[in-house]
Design brief:
The chain is of the alpha/beta class. It folds into two domains: 4-176, Rossmann fold; 181-228. 44% of the residues lie in helices and 23% in strands. Strands 3-2-1-4-5-7-6 form a seven-stranded mixed sheet, with helices on both faces. Strand 2, helix 3 (49-61) and strand 3 form a beta-alpha-beta unit. Helix 1 crosses helix 2 (28-35) and helix 8 (181-203) runs antiparallel to helix 9. It is elongated. Bound molecules: S-adenosylmethionine (SAM). S-adenosylmethionine binds at residues 6, 22-25, 45-48, 51, 74-75, 91-93, 97, 101. S-adenosylmethionine (SAM) binds at residues 6, 22-25, 45-48, 51, 74-75, 91-93, 97, 101.
Length: 230
């Protein structure tokens, strides 16, 4: 049984896809999709030996060795040309790390049509990378599970270049249009955090910094969205 978070990532994997799940740990996601016959091939990439061995073990236990291939490699280096990967999933790490992984592998991205990304934090930096690298968001989800809030970004190759406004980059264009209760709760919490950070910077009487200005700009954006939501 997959977590709601991973099941939502999996729901956006096209039927018959050849996927690379980067940072796969136990390979739960590709194993689940292979068992459901939703994918025709998978690479489960891991940079750390322990999780790589977990993946190897899980795949053997489920007799999926023909379909799911564990690889010990850093980021997209797990992908080989003969894999003909068309879909990449990266879940359960920070946005900056997801962005770094995507940046390091332009050759491995060539045949890729869809990216499904689940940053634990820092989704904005991932959206920025997508729009700067020829991808466009086609859907987004936000969900709460076990006391955490998760965002899932689904992007395809852009037919025409896309740019996102500062609000769309921060909140996500689809999530912003929807303004679900989970979304509102997340940004109420983020607003309180940003306000506290500004207060601390002001109390410390440091010279106004770029950091302070960024926090203030974020507060203005969040207040705008929360007011709109009533
Ligand atoms: N994707 C699974 C999920 O969402 O449940 C596992 C998430 S786990 C918290 C993050 C995994 O990413 C860890 O097992 C870690 O070793 C792996 N990882 C971190 N940086 C990586 C990189 N550059 N390349 C491959 N795997 C990486």
């Amino acid at each position: 049984q997959l977590s709601k978070r991973l099941a939502t990532v999996g729901a956006f994997v096209p039927s018959g896809a050849r996927i690379a799940d980067i940072g796969s740990d136990h390979a739960y996601l590709p194993a689940h999709l292979a068992l459901k016959k939703q994918i025709s091939y998978a690479v489960a990439g891991e940079v750390v030996r322990g999780p790589y061995e977990n993946a190897h073990h899980e795949i053997q236990k489920l007799a999926l060795s023909e379909l799911v291939h564990p690889r010990l490699a850093d980021g997209l280096a797990a992908i080989e040309p003969d894999d003909h990967i068309d879909t990449i999933t990266i879940a359960g790490m920070g946005g900056p790390l997801i962005r770094q992984i995507l940046t390091q592998g332009p050759a491995q991205l060539v045949g890729v049509k869809r990216l499904i990304l689940q940053p634990n934090v820092g989704a904005a930096t991932v959206r920025e990378w997508l729009s700067q690298n020829g991808f466009e968001l086609v859907d987004e989800r936000i969900l709460a599970e076990d006391g955490h809030t998760y965002e899932i970004l689904v992007a395809d190759r852009a037919t025409t270049p896309v740019t996102y406004s500062p609000a769309e980059t921060l909140f996500g264009p689809f999530l912003l249009a929807e303004k679900s209760p989970v979304f509102i709760a997340k940004w109420q919490h983020e607003l309180a955090r940003a306000q506290q950070a500004v207060q601390q910077m002001q109390q410390a009487k440091v010279e106004p910094t770029a950091h302070l200005a960024a926090a203030q700009a974020k507060i203005t954006l969040i207040k705008g969205v929360l007011e709109d939501a009533g």
